[in-house]
Design a protein that fits this description.
heterodimer; A: 26-stranded antiparallel beta barrel; eight-stranded mixed β-sheet; B: twelve-stranded mixed β-sheet; 4 helices; 12 strands; 21% helix
Chain lengths: 938, 250
């Protein structure tokens, strides 16, 4: 009852209160400027005074009157805007009557100078907040090195006299602040004359109480002009880096570090590493951070014409001066490398340069077992190899790109590399016939020493004509490489069933090779319509190679061995002229074209440089027509389909053309063939790609087919030669009939979004390769496939589990000795876990079980490898990481490869780094990533 | 004398604009900056952002043109055939995605057609209101003095700055933005992650520009349903801690 009374009183009271103000109101007024001139068509807005939210708006009519009819009666902020006038603001309290007539609302014109600022500084907002005017410093260009005073001289409405005194809108600036703080003493000039204009982002001019008023606390009504300089935040400037050191059991150690500095235009980085844990170079992530913006460069290929398909190799694909981690899993390596990179980019000009040095010392012990098939017999060989090999590279790379204007671009690249390689290989080979009868053993000790210098360069110029779509590109390149080497060879052959029991050969080889290549390409594009383009190109290259290989006999006073020494001078001239039509419209891109190409081969052979020719000069020309089709379809729902066909002609390798044999190993003799013709093949491929952006499911399918009209195949002659034993001689020949089909499939499907993902990959391949063994034509077919299935489980952000299995099989069949057909199986199972088990603690482990099997060979080996590591992050921003890692806990690491080609099957087993434990410390300037799942989209 | 001419230059166009019937086409240069987009996603780690910024350097921008057709009561925003990237010589043609945004301000209705996560949708509804805050800054865009307005998109985590013309009294704007006392000539989302800025306005009589394609192969939904789709996807990405703007409009 009491409550009801209270409520009644409350309702009555509120009614009384509100009855004083009507609930709806009409607000009206007339807009005029300070001179009394009416301003029609001005924008009138009502805002919420608390947050300036727009509630209602209207325009003044042609008589400059405006009204908001029957709106909620509450407090408003009236805002009026009109071109050329300062925005007007007026607080409106709730109205006491139903009509709130504001009468004449006078708004102030913007002073001439300020208006100029607004108009002139396109894209640069001039802010007017109450009585503060703010200039955006970056839109007033001053030369580098200018002081703030120079900058102020350029700001409209601000005057700086000869002495450096500053006036804003005619009034003296009495006080100057930098980032809101007083800058030494009272004289504003001390700041404006000394500060660099480039560090200023904004200049604000405002009025404040006079110094006098601030001092006395009595507002005397006088106001002084003051200025504040706001400094740039420069978030595009900074540095990052990382340094780590690790030590382990079995004398294992590793160290690496990198440091990067950058600003808007420049990127600078240094990188260094050294270890004996088989990391021979950098990974993709290191590469990206080292090269920075220059990691990827488009339009750098000056070899215009049909894309892909290997028409003709112009530049080396290993153009990168940075060593990647390319350890193949065999042996022990000690590595070191260091480099520095600098990039400059001001949008018109891009320059990047880098230097890198790296070295690797490899020690390898491996055992291989090989079975070679003849027409109706086979022989076996085992090979125990010990190898020590040292390689080093110095490399300098420079790339320069300049955009003269929107129609002309030039790119120039150069790369200089100096490499050294020396090493020693000791091999023990044992040859036997099928029934375990040993025939001979061969001991080889070969030492080598090679120095080489390589220079590559290219320039590309692109021009766009006035007619839209018409363009011309011209490229030129010069490559030069030189190498000098010596080889010291020793072989000792022991025979088990002969009268002469041992045979010993010594050989000292020197080689001096030079290659010079000059090339140029032109591409012209003419638009026929919006959708059709006509492209024409011409390629030229001339490659001259000189090889001087001198073989001497140390046992005969280093006398030259004439039958093994050779000097040859080879030139290959390549000319191609082609044209294609291109259709490009709404996701359909098709190109079809035809090119005529000519390869001219010229060769001269003699025993030494100054000696008469051994054979008549070789002079051959090969002319071919090469068609090319390329089609791409971008279908709805993120599906892509592509098709390509090309006819490829590839010139023979220089080594394959020389008429003099190479017998570094008496059991394997390599001969050249001066009559070798280019390799020619048809190549067709189809690709399909699907991506679902909603759940990230995707699928990739590729099929590629090649058929050879003429293939370069190494034919073998296997003979039992007196004083040598079983000798294999290989010689390149042109054979036709080779075919390959390859397919790849890759799929990724989320079963439970964000938690469980399944992956599947697979592939099937068939190949048919003809070869001649002892002049009998053999055809090796290799049918194989692989399938892999895996799942990734992420129950929460702290745990990631993975499991995957792979099976790979190869069936190798021989036409001359069917009973020797091989079946090779490799299987593996991989389980991994990443677990953030406590704050800042992480555990990572993976277990891999691999099985290698070849039943006919009686080969069956299983290799379980288990790695485990625990790491903890320390310090602010997790800058320090300590990791304890165990590699190959079960101590079972060994490298196994199995393969079968032409007429033999080989199994290779190599020793490599097995169980070791390692403790590492890493300090990262920008802190370690605490997330386990790095979204890798960038 | 100079000053008089200057004032005339400033005032004449606006006087002319005031007389015009506001009908025509505005071309917007749209600049996407992927580094800044990544930077604005709060849950992506500092390491990943810095790495991306360093590797992309000055190459992280992508530009294109969009057209806005407008009259006093209607507007339609769509992709332009013109290429904004001077290096794009038309030799490669991507698939044309379904996209337009039509606004009828007289009836307060929208008709939007777009691809969202690979599927086509037609969204018909009332125009969703935007809570604009009006600020005091002035700036010139394409010869028009504009005032600054600000809005926030809490779902996409975007700070949106709009510059609307004082002298074009229509409520149209680029993309999904409208509802200010003047036409929006520039939008800046997250300090340059995406900028849409008018570089050319042509006043002309429009003919068929507002017409919709006769057949639109798409699923019809209302705005609430579309907003739900967006919310669901962005929340999912947030949970996965991955970049949410692949396959949806920024």
């Amino acid at each position: 009852m009491k409550q009801l009374q209270a409520l009644t009183i409350f309702l009555l009271l509120t009614h009384v209160v509100f009855s004083q103000n009507p609930s709806k109101v009409t607000i009206q007024g007339i807009i005029a400027d300070t001179l009394g001139e009416d301003l029609p068509f001005a924008t009138v807005m009502l805002l919420n005074p608390k947050d300036s939210a727009l509630i209602n708006f209207t325009r003044s009519d042609d008589k400059a009157a405006f009204s908001f009819k029957n709106i909620k009666n509450t407090e408003y902020l009236l805002k009026i805007s009109y071109v050329g006038y300062l925005p007007y603001q007026q607080y409106l309290a709730p109205s006491v009557s139903e009509l709130n007539d504001l009468g004449l609302v006078k708004i102030k014109p913007i002073t001439q100078e300020l208006l100029e600022v607004v108009i002139r500084t396109a894209k640069a907002p001039l802010s007017i907040r109450g009585d503060t005017i703010e200039y955006n410093a970056s839109s007033f260009k001053v030369p580098p090195g200018s002081t703030v005073e120079d900058l102020l001289r350029r700001l409209p409405g601000i005057d700086v006299d000869a002495d450096g005194n500053i006036k804003a809108q005619g009034k003296d600036i009495k006080k100057l602040y930098v980032d809101g703080k007083t800058f030494f003493g009272d004289d504003p000039k001390s700041a404006t004359k000394n500060l660099d204009a480039n560090i200023i982002s904004k200049v604000q001019v405002f009025t404040e109480k006079s110094e006098q008023a601030k001092l006395t606390g009595i507002d005397d009504g006088k106001k002084d002009k003051a200025m504040n300089l706001e400094l740039k935040e420069e978030y595009k400037k900074g540095s990052f880096g990382k340094v780590s050191a690790a030590a382990g059991t079995s004398d294992r150690w590793a160290a690496r570090g990198n440091y990067n500095r950058f600003n808007k235009k420049e990127q600078f980085s240094v990188l260094g590493f050294a270890n004996n844990i088989n990391q021979t170079g950098v990974n993709w992530e290191d590469y990206g951070e080292f090269k920075g913006q220059n990691s990827f460069n488009n339009n750098d290929n000056g070899d215009f014409g049909f894309g892909g398909g290997g028409n003709y190799r112009y530049f080396n694909s290993d153009d990168s001066e940075i060593p990647f981690n390319n350890y193949d899993g065999r042996g022990f390596t000690k590595n070191a490398g260091t480099g520095v990179n600098y990039n400059y980019d001001n949008k018109k000009t891009k320059l990047s340069s880098s230097y890198f040095y790296n070295q690797t010392q490899l020690n390898l012990d491996q055992f291989s077992k090989r079975q070679t098939f003849l027409k109706d017999s086979s022989f076996y060989s085992t090979d125990t190899t010990g190898k020590s090999d040292f390689r080093s590279n110095h490399s300098v790379a420079v790339r320069f790109e300049h955009e003269f204007d929107s129609t002309n671009v030039l790119i120039v690249k150069g790369n200089l590399r100096f490499s050294q390689n020396n090493g020693e290989t000791i091999q023990n080979q044992l040859f036997s016939k099928g029934n375990n009868v040993n025939t001979n053993s061969l001991y080889l000790n070969n030492g080598n020493d090679l120095n080489s210098l390589r220079f590559t360069s290219a320039a590309i110029f692109r021009h766009k004509f006035k007619k839209k779509g018409r363009s011309l590109a011209i490229s030129g390149g010069y490559n030069d490489s030189n190498s000098d080497g010596t080889e010291n060879l020793f072989s000792l052959n022991k025979f088990f069933q002969a009268t002469t029991f041992t045979e010993q050969i010594r050989q000292l080889n020197t080689s001096a090779n030079t290659t010079k290549q000059l090339k140029s390409s032109v591409l012209f594009t003419e638009p026929l319509s919006k959708k059709w383009f006509w492209e024409s190109f011409y390629n030229f290259s001339n490659t001259n190679t000189q090889v001087n290989r001198q073989v001497n006999d140390p046992e005969k006073n280093n006398e030259r061995v004439d039958k093994l020494s050779v000097f040859y001078d080879n030139s290959i001239q390549y000319n191609r002229l082609g044209s294609s039509l291109r259709y490009a419209h709404q996701g359909i891109n098709i190109t079809a074209g035809l090119a005529a190409q000519q390869l001219s081969l010229n060769g001269k052979y003699s025993i030494d440089k100054s000696l008469p020719l051994l054979t008549a000069p070789i002079d051959k020309k090969y002319t071919n027509l090469t068609p090319n089709v390329n089609a791409n379809f971008e279908l709805p729902n993120n599906k892509y389909l592509s098709f390509s066909y090309g006819y490829n002609v590839r010139e023979p390798q220089i080594n394959d053309l020389q008429p003099i044999p190479n017998v570094n190993n008496p059991a394997f003799r390599t001969e050249g063939n001066p009559n070798l013709r280019p390799e020619r093949n048809h190549n067709a491929s189809v690709g399909f790609n699907y991506w679902n952006p909603a759940n990230f499911a995707n699928m990739n399918l590729n099929v590629e087919y090649s058929k050879y009209d003429e293939q370069i195949i190494y034919s073998q002659t296997i003979e039992n030669i007196d004083k040598v034993g079983i000798r294999t001689t290989t010689r390149p020949e042109n054979l036709s009939g080779g075919q390959t089909v390859q397919t790849w499939l890759w799929m990724n499907y989320p079963i439970i979004k964000t938690k469980l993902t399944a992956t599947a990959n697979g592939g099937i391949n068939f190949s048919k390769t003809p070869s001649k063994i002892n002049n009998i034509l053999n055809e090796t077919t290799n049918n194989g496939g692989n399938i892999g299935l895996g799942i990734n489980l992420t129950p929460n952000q702290k745990l990631i589990l993975g499991l995957r299995g792979n099976i790979r099989f190869n069936n190798i069949e021989y036409s001359i000795q069917k009973e020797q057909n091989q079946k090779i199986r490799n299987q593996s199972l991989d389980a991994s876990v990443k677990w953030n088990f406590a704050k800042k603690y992480y555990l990572e482990s993976n277990f891999n079980y691999a099985a290698y099997k070849n039943e006919r060979f009686g080969f069956d080996q299983k290799v379980p490898i288990w790695n485990l590591s625990v790491r903890r992050l320390f310090l602010k921003e997790n800058k320090l990481e300590m990791r304890l890692a165990a590699f190959d806990l079960l101590n079972r690491q060994v490298n196994i490869t199995q393969s079968g080609t032409q007429n033999y099957v080989i199994t290779n087993t190599a020793q490599t780094l097995a169980r070791y434990f390692m403790l590492s410390l890493t300090y990262n300037l920008r802190g370690h990533e605490t997330k386990m799942n790095k979204g890798g989209h960038f | 004398m100079k000053k008089i001419i200057f004032v005339l230059i400033i005032l004449l166009p606006s006087a002319m604009w005031a007389q015009q019937s506001f009908e025509g086409k505005a071309r917007y240069l749209v600049t996407h900056n992927w580094t800044k987009k990544l930077d604005a996603v709060p849950y992506i780690s500092k390491q990943q952002k810095e790495r991306s910024a360093y590797m992309w350097g000055n190459d992280s921008e992508w530009k294109l043109y969009n057209n806005l057709y407008f009259n006093a009561t209607t507007s339609k925003f769509e992709d332009s055939e013109e290429k904004a990237d001077p290096n794009d010589d038309n030799r490669w043609a991507g698939r044309k995605e379904l996209f337009f945004m039509k606004r009828d301000f007289a009836n307060n209705t929208m008709t939007d057609a777009m691809e969202f996560l690979g599927k086509n949708y037609l969204i018909e509804d009332e125009i969703p209101p935007i809570n604009w805050k009006i600020l005091n800054d002035l700036k010139e865009v394409a010869g028009h003095i504009c005032m600054k307005a600000f809005a926030e998109d809490t779902l996409k985590n975007q700070n949106i700055v709009a510059w609307f013309a004082q002298d074009i009294p229509i409520s149209a704007g680029p993309d999904r933005f409208s509802g200010l006392p003047g036409m929006i000539l520039e939008i800046d989302i997250n300090d340059g992650a995406m900028i849409m800025s008018v570089d050319k306005i042509e006043l002309k009589k429009l003919t068929t520009e507002f017409d919709l394609p006769k057949k639109i192969k798409s699923k019809k939904i209302n705005y609430a349903e579309y907003h739900d789709l967006e919310t669901k996807f962005i929340k999912e990405k947030r949970k996965e801690e991955s970049f949410p703007f692949w396959g949806i409009r920024y």
